[in-house]
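LOG
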Amino acid sequence: MAKRPFRGKKTKKKLPNNPNQMMSQMQQMQTDMAKAQEELENEFVTVSAAGGAISIVISGHQRVKSIEIDPEFIDPEDDDYLEDLQDLLTVAVNQAIERSQALSAERMEAISSGMNGLNDMLGNMGLNL
């Protein structure tokens, strides 16, 4: 007895975007990311530490613009003031860097979140963004 061909529904896995559309989306994303990187250079966050005695301004590119220390915070009579100041500056700079990185990540995520179709297509090929 000969085998009969399968007569069920034929289904094709439909890709969400065509290659031209995918390329266009990628180019737009590159343009948007470059613009966001430029803007981050001129976008600043301010972090305060030690109850506002230390203030650090940092750009979205993690470049420290300024560090201000309240003169009343400095007490040369205190034997530990230098060590305390160094510890507080270290904490404040690290907080400023973290806030700057979060700002940058937020901007980039906003751009890449619109690439769901691209991510679906790449996922179908075994690649994921």
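LOG (cont.) second protein
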Amino acid sequence: MLVGRVVRPEGSSELAHKARGVRVYLARHGETTWNLAGRYQGRLESALTPFGAAQALALAGAMDSAGVRRVVSSPLLRCTATAAPAAERVHAPVEIDDRLLEIAHGTWEGRLRDEIAANDPLRYRAWREDPAHVRFENGETIVQVLERWREFAAAFRPAVPSLVVTHDAVVRVALVAATGRELDAFWNGRVENGAYAVFDVDESGWTLVEENVAAHLGALRASTEGQAL
């Protein structure tokens, strides 16, 4: 199994802050066992499936071809395991940033989507139809996830092309933020396991170049229809 070095950066260099128009690839982790089961993950750990591990290898090849030289990840295993092959391929450590964590689903975590739909139907329906106004019991709102993302995006000034590996909800709020849409558009974008959005990053902010790149996955594209998102 490929394992990248994992470090926590102490801060951005002066050179990174002076970067202009650097390409950043914002990827969702590979398919996990809980994705496949339709189980909410949130802050709980779930391993990549063999399919997800193959997606991580495909992502690594794409990032090598794109000239990526820096890799940053959510601390959760499904993200670090997705980031590790790319980091090893481009000879970079995996930097950890807690601001990239998945939304905290609170009492939904570890439970099947169908169970939630049956036992917490009002909140489940609101989450699917009006996500901007849902607070998870003992969890977060997407407003809080957006705040975390904005804090990360404001601080992250890469000097080299970079891969950032995170979760479905974080990619979605990043797309909302980049396009100036309201949080009601949270579900509008397409976010796939092992796929990525492309941004150009400079001191003025993050400019969305492409929303969902999945060509590198080929036959490894996983359906998200049964996933607990």
